[in-house]
Amino acid sequence: MSKKQLTKKAVILLIWLGLWQITALCVNNPIYFASPAEVATELFDKLRTAEFWASVGGSLIRILSGFLASFLLGYLCAFAAHRWKWVGDFLSPFITLLKSVPIAAVVVILLIWWGPRYLVLCISMMVVFPNIYSNMRTGLSGADKGLLELAKVQRIPLWECFFWIYRPAYLPSLHAAASVSLGICFKSGVAAEVIGLPEFSIGERLYRDKIYLNTAGVFAWIIVVLVLSAVTERLILKGMKQLAKVPCAVVEEAVATRDETKGQAANAANEQQVLSARGIRKSYEGKTFVDTDVTMNKGCMYCLKAPSGAGKSTLLRILAGLTSPDEGTVEAGRISMVFQENRLIEQGNVYRNLLFAGCTGDLKAKLAGLLPERTLQLPASSLSGGEKRRLCIAMALLCPSDIVILDEPFAGLDETTKLATAEWILAHLQGRALLFTTHETDPEILAGARTVALYKYAK
C-alpha cells in the first residue's frame, strides 16, 4: 500500500473518530453512548486479563471450526452436484431451507436439542454452507466446455482436468463466497453466543457487560469482533490466493519430457483397422447432415472435403465420441484431435499445454520447426493466432493415440506456414491414421489422402 493510500485511510479514520466523539459529547451519557476514549480505556483493561484471551480463543475456535467445516462440505457437495445431477436435485430443498429459515428459530431449536455446546458451530455452518455451495456450483458451470471436450477425446486424467479446467473456473466465485461468508459467520456466531452463553466466549462476555450497563465494554467487544473478522478474512483469503497460484510462465524443461514407451507399445499392439463407423446418420431439424460409413486403417491419411456448414465437424464429433448419432455405431481406438477453434489453457505456457494433453518425449526437440523457441515459455494467451493454432496441432500429434483428427488445422496460417506445418505433421504422424478436413477451395496440403464422404452415395 502506498504512502498516499495510507494517509487517505488515516484521514478517513480520524474523521469517523471525530464524528464519534462529537456524538458522545452531544449525548453526554456514557450509559447510552460511550466516547472513543472510554472505549479505548475499557479495551485496554480487557486486554490485560486472561479471561479476555480465553473468550477470544473460545469464540475463534467455535466460529472458525464452523466456517472451515461448512466450507469443506459445501466444496465437496458442489462437486458432487456438478458431477451427478441427482445430487443437486436432492440438495436443492435443503439449500432453500437454509437460506430461508430464520436463524433465531434455529437457535431456539438447537438449544432445546443440544444446549449451547454445538450452537455456534451449527449456526456458522448454516450461514456459510449455502453460500459456498451456490458459488461453487456457479463457478463449476463456467468451466471451459471446449477444454472439457478435448480432455474427453484425449483421455486426460481427472486430476489434470480438475487442476487446469475446473480450478480456474471456480476460484473467483469461491474467493468471493469465502470473503462474504467469513463476515456473516462472525456476526451470526457471536449473536448465537449471546443467546446460548457458552463459557469462554465473546458473546457471553458481551452479554455480561450489557447486564451491567457497561456500554463502553459492549463497544469494546464490537471492535474486537470487527478486528478479528477483518484479520481472519485477510489471512484466509491470502492463504487461498497462495494455494491458487499457478505457474503460468515457467515450466522446467526437465518436466517437459515424458516417457513415450507406454504410448508406443499401445500403438504397436493395435490391429491394422483403427476405426469402423457403420450406418452413421445425423439430422438436425429435419435436415440430414451425415449419412455415411467410415473405415480407417493405421498408416493411412483421409481427407473430408466439403463447404462450410455441410456437416464435416458433426461427423468428426461423432467419430470422436462427443456427439451421438441418430443411427449407427462407432468403434475406434484412442483419438487425439484438433478442433476448429483453439482449445488451450490460456494461463499455461507451451510446455504446460502439451503436458496437459498427455504429450510425451523430448518436447523441446520435437517442437523444432513448428514453434519458435522464444515462444516455449510464454503463456498461451500471449501467442499469436498462428502460433496458437500450431500449438493445438502439436498437442494432438505429440500424445499417444491411434488416430489423429484435424478439423480445419491450417485455418489462419499463410501458405508458407501451411506447407511447413504439413511437413511437420507428416514427420510426427508415426504410422497413425490421419483424418483432416478442408474447404473445397483450399489447396491440397497433404497429398495422397483418401476421400471420406459425408453421404454414402456421394460422387
Morphology: elongated
Percent in helix: 55-70%
In what range is the share of β-strand residues?
Answer: 5-15%
What is the CATH superfamily label of the largest domain?
MetI-like
Radius of gyration computed on alpha carbons: 31 Å
Low-confidence stretches: 247-258, 261-271
List SSEs in N-to-C order: HHHHHHHHHHEHEEEHEEHEHHEHEE
Secondary structure category: alpha/beta
Mean pLDDT: 85
Helical stretch count? 16
The largest β sheet comes out as: 5 strands, parallel
Number of domains in the coordinates?
2
Report the end-to-end length measured between terminal Cα atoms: 71 Å
CATH architecture assignment of the largest domain: Orthogonal Bundle
Q: Kindly identify the CATH topology of the largest domain.
A: MetI-like fold
Written overview of the protein:
The chain has helices spanning 3-27, 36-47, 50-83, 85-100, 103-114, 119-141, 145-153, 158-196, 202-211, 215-244, 261-268, 312-319, 350-356, 363-366, 385-397, 415-427; strands spanning 257-258, 273-284, 287-297, 301-305, 327-332, 335-338, 361-362, 403-406, 433-438, 450-451. The protein has 459 residues and is of the alpha/beta class. It folds into 2 domains: 17-244, MetI-like fold, CATH 1.10.3720.10; 257-451, Rossmann fold, CATH 3.40.50. It has a 5-stranded parallel β-sheet with strand order 6-8-9-4-10, sandwiched between helices. β8 (403-406), α16 (415-427) and β9 form a beta-alpha-beta unit. It starts with a helix and ends in an 8-residue tail after the last strand. The relative contact order is 0.09.
